[in-house]
Protein backbone atom coordinates (compact mmCIF):
# COMPACT_ATOMS: atom_id res chain seq x y z
CA UNK A 1 0.00 0.00 0.00
CA UNK A 2 1.24 3.54 -0.69
CA UNK A 3 2.47 5.44 2.33
CA UNK A 4 3.33 8.95 3.35
CA UNK A 5 7.12 9.00 3.46
CA UNK A 6 7.19 12.39 5.15
CA UNK A 7 5.15 15.51 5.90
CA UNK A 8 7.09 18.69 5.15
CA UNK A 9 6.55 22.29 6.14
CA UNK A 10 8.56 25.43 5.45
CA UNK A 11 9.34 28.48 7.54
CA UNK A 12 9.63 31.94 5.95
CA UNK A 13 13.06 32.76 4.58
CA UNK A 14 14.42 35.55 2.35
CA UNK A 15 13.67 35.01 -1.34
CA UNK A 16 16.46 36.23 -3.65
CA UNK A 17 14.80 34.66 -6.69
CA UNK A 18 11.54 36.62 -6.90
CA UNK A 19 10.04 40.00 -6.09
CA UNK A 20 8.23 38.49 -3.12
CA UNK A 21 10.30 39.13 -0.02
CA UNK A 22 10.14 35.65 1.44
CA UNK A 23 9.56 32.03 0.54
CA UNK A 24 8.68 28.78 2.26
CA UNK A 25 10.14 26.50 -0.42
CA UNK A 26 12.73 25.05 1.96
CA UNK A 27 10.42 22.48 3.51
CA UNK A 28 11.63 20.10 6.19
CA UNK A 29 10.25 16.72 7.27
CA UNK A 30 8.31 16.82 10.54
CA UNK A 31 8.58 14.22 13.25
CA UNK A 32 5.13 14.60 14.76
CA UNK A 33 1.59 14.97 13.40
CA UNK A 34 0.67 17.98 11.26
CA UNK A 35 -2.81 19.48 11.07
CA UNK A 36 -4.38 19.72 7.60
CA UNK A 37 -7.37 21.97 6.81
CA UNK A 38 -8.76 24.05 3.93
CA UNK A 39 -6.81 27.33 3.90
CA UNK A 40 -9.46 29.44 2.20
CA UNK A 41 -9.06 31.55 -0.94
CA UNK A 42 -5.83 32.98 -2.32
CA UNK A 43 -4.85 36.45 -1.05
CA UNK A 44 -7.28 36.48 1.90
CA UNK A 45 -6.92 32.91 3.19
CA UNK A 46 -4.31 31.11 5.28
CA UNK A 47 -2.11 30.11 2.33
CA UNK A 48 -1.08 26.51 2.87
CA UNK A 49 -3.37 23.67 3.83
CA UNK A 50 -0.85 22.55 6.46
CA UNK A 51 -0.76 24.39 9.76
CA UNK A 52 2.67 25.93 10.25
CA UNK A 53 3.60 25.91 6.58
CA UNK A 54 4.49 29.22 4.94
CA UNK A 55 3.42 30.47 1.48
CA UNK A 56 5.43 33.48 0.30
CA UNK A 57 3.71 34.16 -3.03
CA UNK A 58 0.01 34.10 -2.25
CA UNK A 59 -0.84 35.25 -5.77
CA UNK A 60 0.39 32.05 -7.43
CA UNK A 61 0.52 29.47 -4.64
CA UNK A 62 -1.73 28.25 -1.86
CA UNK A 63 -5.46 28.65 -1.46
CA UNK A 64 -8.11 25.94 -1.46
CA UNK A 65 -7.31 24.57 -4.94
CA UNK A 66 -3.57 24.38 -4.19
CA UNK A 67 -3.76 23.65 -0.49
CA UNK A 68 -1.32 20.72 -0.44
CA UNK A 69 1.51 19.82 -2.82
CA UNK A 70 2.55 16.17 -3.19
CA UNK A 71 5.57 14.64 -4.91
CA UNK A 72 6.67 11.02 -5.20
CA UNK A 73 9.87 9.86 -3.51
CA UNK A 74 10.48 7.62 -6.51
CA UNK A 75 10.54 10.67 -8.79
CA UNK A 76 12.93 12.46 -6.42
CA UNK A 77 15.17 9.38 -6.60
CA UNK A 78 15.12 9.65 -10.38
CA UNK A 79 16.14 13.30 -10.21
CA UNK A 80 18.96 12.42 -7.82
CA UNK A 81 20.42 10.13 -10.48
CA UNK A 82 19.99 12.71 -13.24
CA UNK A 83 21.46 15.57 -11.23
CA UNK A 84 24.08 13.61 -9.31
CA UNK A 85 23.12 15.11 -5.97
CA UNK A 86 21.09 14.29 -2.89
CA UNK A 87 17.49 15.56 -2.79
CA UNK A 88 15.94 15.16 0.66
CA UNK A 89 12.20 14.92 1.18
CA UNK A 90 10.66 18.36 0.85
CA UNK A 91 13.38 19.72 -1.42
CA UNK A 92 10.98 20.34 -4.30
CA UNK A 93 8.79 22.32 -1.92
CA UNK A 94 6.35 19.46 -1.50
CA UNK A 95 4.24 19.13 1.62
CA UNK A 96 3.74 15.40 1.19
CA UNK A 97 6.45 13.08 -0.03
CA UNK A 98 4.75 9.84 -1.02
CA UNK A 99 6.04 6.34 -1.61
CA UNK A 100 4.35 3.72 -3.81
CA UNK A 101 2.01 6.21 -5.50
CA UNK A 102 2.23 7.60 -9.05
CA UNK A 103 1.48 11.20 -8.17
CA UNK A 104 1.92 12.67 -11.64
CA UNK A 105 -0.12 9.77 -13.01
CA UNK A 106 -3.05 10.60 -10.73
CA UNK A 107 -6.34 11.66 -12.33
CA UNK A 108 -7.86 15.07 -11.80
CA UNK A 109 -10.55 14.55 -9.16
CA UNK A 110 -8.86 11.47 -7.70
CA UNK A 111 -9.35 11.26 -3.94
CA UNK A 112 -6.80 10.10 -1.41
CA UNK A 113 -7.42 9.16 2.19
CA UNK A 114 -4.33 9.62 4.32
CA UNK A 115 -4.29 8.00 7.72
CA UNK A 116 -7.64 7.78 9.47
CA UNK A 117 -8.91 11.34 9.03
CA UNK A 118 -7.64 13.35 6.08
CA UNK A 119 -9.10 13.18 2.58
CA UNK A 120 -7.64 15.14 -0.32
CA UNK A 121 -8.65 15.58 -3.97
CA UNK A 122 -6.24 16.07 -6.88
CA UNK A 123 -6.79 19.44 -8.59
CA UNK A 124 -3.92 20.68 -10.79
CA UNK A 125 -0.24 20.05 -11.55
CA UNK A 126 2.53 22.18 -10.11
CA UNK A 127 3.79 24.78 -12.59
CA UNK A 128 7.41 25.65 -11.76
CA UNK A 129 8.32 29.27 -11.00
CA UNK A 130 11.44 31.40 -10.71
CA UNK A 131 11.76 30.60 -7.00
CA UNK A 132 11.91 26.88 -7.80
CA UNK A 133 14.48 27.52 -10.55
CA UNK A 134 16.72 29.55 -8.27
CA UNK A 135 16.32 27.17 -5.35
CA UNK A 136 17.39 24.09 -7.34
CA UNK A 137 20.22 26.05 -8.93
CA UNK A 138 20.69 23.90 -12.03
CA UNK A 139 21.35 25.57 -15.38
CA UNK A 140 18.24 25.37 -17.56
CA UNK A 141 16.28 23.82 -14.70
CA UNK A 142 12.78 24.91 -15.71
CA UNK A 143 13.26 23.53 -19.21
CA UNK A 144 14.66 20.26 -17.82
CA UNK A 145 11.87 19.87 -15.27
CA UNK A 146 9.18 20.67 -17.82
CA UNK A 147 10.49 18.22 -20.41
CA UNK A 148 10.14 15.23 -18.08
CA UNK A 149 6.54 16.10 -17.16
CA UNK A 150 6.65 14.73 -13.60
CA UNK A 151 5.32 17.87 -11.91
CA UNK A 152 3.65 16.42 -8.85
CA UNK A 153 0.11 17.31 -7.85
CA UNK A 154 -1.70 19.98 -5.94
CA UNK A 155 -4.64 18.83 -3.86
CA UNK A 156 -7.60 20.41 -2.12
CA UNK A 157 -8.67 19.39 1.38
CA UNK A 158 -11.98 17.49 1.52
CA UNK A 159 -11.74 16.25 5.11
CA UNK A 160 -9.53 17.92 7.72
CA UNK A 161 -7.41 16.14 10.32
CA UNK A 162 -3.83 15.24 11.08
CA UNK A 163 -1.23 13.38 9.04
CA UNK A 164 2.20 12.07 9.89
CA UNK A 165 5.07 10.12 8.37
CA UNK A 166 4.17 6.46 7.82
CA UNK A 167 0.44 7.03 7.33
CA UNK A 168 -1.17 4.79 4.73
CA UNK A 169 -2.50 6.43 1.57
CA UNK A 170 -5.57 4.91 -0.03
CA UNK A 171 -6.99 6.00 -3.37
CA UNK A 172 -10.68 5.99 -2.44
CA UNK A 173 -12.02 7.36 -5.72
CA UNK A 174 -10.74 7.34 -9.30
CA UNK A 175 -12.88 9.27 -11.78
CA UNK A 176 -14.07 7.75 -15.06
CA UNK A 177 -11.82 9.78 -17.38
CA UNK A 178 -8.18 9.70 -18.52
CA UNK A 179 -6.99 13.21 -17.67
CA UNK A 180 -3.88 12.81 -15.56
CA UNK A 181 -1.79 15.39 -13.77
CA UNK A 182 1.03 14.79 -16.28
CA UNK A 183 -1.28 15.27 -19.28
CA UNK A 184 -2.64 18.47 -17.78
CA UNK A 185 0.88 19.73 -17.19
CA UNK A 186 1.89 19.09 -20.79
CA UNK A 187 -1.25 20.86 -22.00
CA UNK A 188 -0.41 23.91 -19.88
CA UNK A 189 3.26 24.04 -20.86
CA UNK A 190 4.71 22.37 -23.94
CA UNK A 191 1.64 21.02 -25.79
CA UNK A 192 -1.26 23.51 -25.73
CA UNK A 193 -3.01 21.51 -28.46
CA UNK A 194 -3.81 19.02 -25.69
CA UNK A 195 -5.90 21.57 -23.78
CA UNK A 196 -9.27 20.47 -25.24
CA UNK A 197 -8.60 16.95 -23.94
CA UNK A 198 -8.85 18.31 -20.41
CA UNK A 199 -12.58 18.85 -20.88
CA UNK A 200 -13.01 15.08 -20.56
CA UNK A 201 -12.47 15.59 -16.82
CA UNK A 202 -15.87 17.27 -16.65
CA UNK A 203 -16.78 18.64 -13.23
CA UNK A 204 -13.38 17.62 -11.87
CA UNK A 205 -11.76 20.39 -13.93
CA UNK A 206 -11.32 23.62 -11.99
CA UNK A 207 -12.79 26.76 -13.55
CA UNK A 208 -9.46 28.23 -14.64
CA UNK A 209 -8.49 25.09 -16.56
CA UNK A 210 -11.96 24.74 -18.07
CA UNK A 211 -11.73 28.27 -19.44
CA UNK A 212 -8.31 27.64 -21.01
CA UNK A 213 -9.41 24.32 -22.50
CA UNK A 214 -12.61 25.81 -23.91
CA UNK A 215 -10.75 28.73 -25.47
CA UNK A 216 -8.27 26.39 -27.15
CA UNK A 217 -11.08 24.20 -28.48
CA UNK A 218 -12.70 27.29 -29.99
CA UNK A 219 -9.43 28.24 -31.66
CA UNK A 220 -9.05 24.71 -33.04
CA UNK A 221 -12.54 24.81 -34.50
CA UNK A 222 -12.01 28.17 -36.24
Automatic annotation (TrEMBL):
MOSC domain location: 36-172
Domain of life: Bacteria
Gene Ontology MF term list: catalytic activity; molybdenum ion binding; pyridoxal phosphate binding
InterPro entries per record: Benzoxazolinone_Detox_Enz, MoCF_Sase_C, Pyrv_Knase-like_insert_dom_sf
Name of the protein in question: Uncharacterized protein conserved in bacteria
PROSITE patterns the UniProt entry points to: MOSC
Sequence segments annotated as region (Disordered): 1-42
